[in-house]
Write a structure and sequence with these properties.
With 712 residues, the protein is α/β, with parallel strands linked by helices. The chain has three domains: 188 residues, no CATH class; 120 residues, no CATH class; 245 residues, Phosphatidylinositol (PI) phosphodiesterase (TIM Barrel, Alpha-Beta Barrel). The chain contains 26 helices and 13 strands. The strands form two sheets. Strands 3, 4, 5, 6, 7, 8, 9, 10, 11, 12 and 13 form an eleven-stranded mixed beta sheet that branches. It has a two-stranded antiparallel ribbon with strand order 1-2. The radius of gyration is 31 Å and the shape is elongated. The N and C termini lie far apart (86 Å).
Length: 712
């Protein structure tokens, strides 16, 4: 009995599509579930989902009441506080660390109990409650065991662990699947008697795979129903599922795009195989009741089920319909484009066309042309969309955004400044952040002066341990800077870091203790270098609170390629103009708070160069313009403008003090009292209020009537 070559060819083709989709799913799952670091990031990101936030707030409230049952009368207040707390960056940072611990316990051992201990969350709870009721805050336990889960008590534990075991095996073979899948698809097309029809089936298969991968995300609701019977827990599971598998959207778009291209190319060569016509036929068949009574029953139940799912999950259904509609529109456009290209090719003789069609050469030559066209179009889009260097216009120089500033000296210009610039919500694992965007985002938003802290650190078990031996002389200063609570948190974390160093000592951006937040210095300096390289008419100021030797800091500037942009002239009156700094290619002026000698271009900050206001204010009414470090006769004037609320800075305070009217009033008051233009205005949470608007006003660039004033 002779076996038709059609069946094995299409079997290989279908198997290849399945393996490709499985490989994509395995890679995303291994990244989001089996990788502890990625799982921690996705869990923290999931807190933005209201369902996850509600679940965590409820469990956190229960944890507080378990520790202090007498607070049950205040449950609504504690619950409301917890609901706001779980949305904050410090809480997300703590959750990341907790999930890493739980991940190691659940996946790296065979234990039956997972304990996610958040011993430092009590600091945040007390701080949050303090603003509402100081008396109640004193009753909040400083140590809270927030989440505990007995795996053995869960009915679905066996299924989950078995699923994780299988997922781990699949993940190990993910790359092989992604290589084998497309190879089988190509082999199936090659072996098929009619390669054009096989190409069409491959394209449709990839489109189906893309839709199924996209459908994994809303499937989390069904999984939640199967795993839990508790409403809050079901919502949290669905929210976490969406966060963990959000990477499948990119895979779905990739496979769908490839499938769309293949299907469009195939149908442009095969007029009789039109998927849209086939889809219309399929819809007509589904909408027509069958003749058999039994089939009518199944037909009606099926339609009822589909309609019920649409009603139950309208947003997911709308997303699916939108996705399919978008794919259909793209398909029609690409198909006609391919027909146009193929129709413009030189005509072959009838014999050549027949011979090439029989051998597959006719198809191959056109597919090469179509592929080249797609590559050219795609490359053009990438080039046009890729951010590059800013165009320097042929017109007047725009120094820090305005030609008006070019001939002003440094002490005649106001710079929007961030306090503890490195302490931001975009920095992974950073507790108690003080800015709502990375240094890169700050520069893009108009920040032109950075206040940063540089420490010595040693990487240990994924966390950086402060090299206190090298900073012993600064220990008291660090504790005063971050507060007793944050110091206690850092010491507890430090005591858990008993492993061997995982890398050499280096310089890090930290605020006080690297254990509660750190970033390698060199990559951050590279971000500043890239900004100056792409924006050659901008001048920056950097003030470093230095706990590392000047020569080591200078070496990191060299390593990052930033040293070439640093100003090396005298810091004496008259200071250089912005134009002279830009034309010399040295638009970055760097100061050291310690004033330690050793590197000539790391200028002493508070020894004649900069004078400042006090920086420890607990209420807006406490702001003053008194002389602090640097005396009262320095070249530059720095206003410290933030509310101290250690350990956790509050954006709500920034909403008040960063508001346009409030900030402008204080800047003018200090200018009048100190008889000097405020050159450096440093704030927390630069994105709150209107710091940049105030700076433009003080620089004389924006009339007051055109500034969008922030409301306190």
């Amino acid at each position: 009995m002779r076996i038709s070559p059609v069946r094995p060819a299409y079997f290989l083709l279908g198997l290849g599509v399945v393996l490709t989709a499985a490989g994509a799913l395995a890679i995303d799952a291994s990244r989001g579930i089996l990788n502890g670091e990625a799982m921690a990031d996705r869990t923290a990101a999931a807190l933005v989902d209201p369902r996850v936030g509600a679940f965590v707030a409820d469990r956190l409230t229960n944890a507080v009441l378990t520790e202090k049952p007498d607070l049950v009368a205040f449950r609504p207040i504690i619950a409301a506080t917890a609901g706001g707390l779980v949305q904050t960056a410090p809480f997300r940072a703590i959750v990341r660390q907790a999930v890493r611990t739980a991940h190691r316990s659940a996946l790296s051992t065979t234990g039956q109990r997972v304990l996610v201990s958040l011993p430092d969350v009590g600091v945040l709870v007390q701080s949050a409650v303090q603003s509402m009721s100081p008396a109640m805050a004193d009753k909040i336990p400083p140590r809270i065991e927030a989440f505990a889960s007995d795996l053995a008590a869960r009915p679905a534990t066996g299924r989950i662990q078995e699923g994780l075991r299988i997922l781990g095996l699949i993940a190990r073979a993910a790359l092989a699947l992604l290589l084998l899948g497309p190879a089988l698809v190509i082999l199936g097309i090659w072996l098929a008697p009619d390669r054009r029809r096989a190409l069409l089936r491959a394209g449709i298969g990839l489109l189906v795979a893309a839709v199924l991968l996209f459908g994994v995300i809303p499937a989390g609701r069904a999984v939640a129903v199967l795993i839990s019977h508790e409403a809050l827990e079901r919502g949290a599971i669905a929210g976490l599922w969406r966060a963990y598998f959000t990477g499948l959207v990119a895979w779905s778009i990739t496979l769908g795009g490839i499938g769309l291209l293949v299907t469009s190319a195939a149908t442009s060569l095969l007029e009789t195989a039109d998927p849209i016509h086939r889809a219309e036929e399929l819809f007509r068949i589904l909408a027509t009741p069958p003749k058999s009574a039994g089939l009518v029953l199944l037909w009606s139940l099926g339609l009822t089920l589909v309609g019920g799912l649409v009603v139950a999950f309208p947003s997911d259904a709308a997303a699916a319909i939108t996705l399919l509609a978008g794919l259909g529109v793209c398909y029609v456009g690409l198909r006609e484009l391919f027909r146009l290209v193929l129709g413009a090719l030189p005509e072959e003789t009838a014999a050549e066309a027949a011979r090439e069609a029989k051998s597959g050469g006719w198809l191959n030559r056109r597919l090469v042309v179509v592929s080249l066209l797609v590559l050219v179009l795609g490359g053009t889009v990438v080039v046009l969309a890729r951010p590059g260097k800013s165009d320097v216009s042929a017109g007047p120089m725009q120094c820090n955004g305005s030609s008006t500033l070019c001939d002003r000296h440094l002490d005649e210009v106001v710079f929007a400044t961030t306090h503890n610039s490195m302490s931001n919500v975009d920095m992974r694992n950073w507790m108690f952040p003080q800015q709502n965007g990375s240094i890169q985002r700050q520069l893009q938003a108009g920040i032109r002066a950075l206040l940063i802290d540089v420490h010595n650190g040693v990487p240990v078990e994924g966390i950086v341990r402060t090299d206190l031996d090298a900073e012993a002389q600064s220990a008291l200063k660090i504790e005063n800077a971050v507060g007793d609570s944050a110091t206690a948190v850092a010491v507890r974390i430090r005591n858990r870091l008993t492993g061997d160093p995982s890398g050499p000592p280096a310089r890090y951006l930290c605020h006080g203790f690297c254990e509660i937040g750190s970033a390698p210095l060199v990559p951050e300096l590279e971000e500043v270098r890239d900004f100056l390289r792409g924006n050659p008419e901008e001048v920056l100021v950097m003030v470093i609170e230095d706990y590392a030797p000047p020569d080591s800091i200078a070496a990191d500037f060299e390593k990052a390629g930033l040293a070439q942009y640093v100003y090396r002239g005298p810091i004496t009156a008259p200071l250089p103009t912005l134009r002279s700094l830009i034309e010399a290619g040295t638009p970055l002026v760097v100061f050291l708070e310690s004033g330690a000698p050793g590197v000539p271009w790391l200028y002493p900050a508070f020894d004649g160069a900069i004078m400042e206001t006090p920086y420890t204010f607990h209420e807006p009414q406490e702001f003053s313009c008194k002389a602090n470090r640097g005396g009262s006769n320095a070249l530059l004037f720095q206003i410290n403008h933030w509310i101290e609320s250690t350990p956790a800075p509050k954006p709500s305070n920034a909403e008040i003090v960063n508001a346009y009217d409030f900030l402008l009033k204080r800047a003018r008051q200090c200018m009048k009292q100190r008889k000097h233009l405020p050159n450096i205005i440093a704030v927390d949470f630069y994105g709150v209020g209107d710091l940049v608007g105030v700076v433009r006003e003080l620089n004389g660039l924006t009339p007051p009537s055109t500034v969008a004033k922030a409301t306190p």
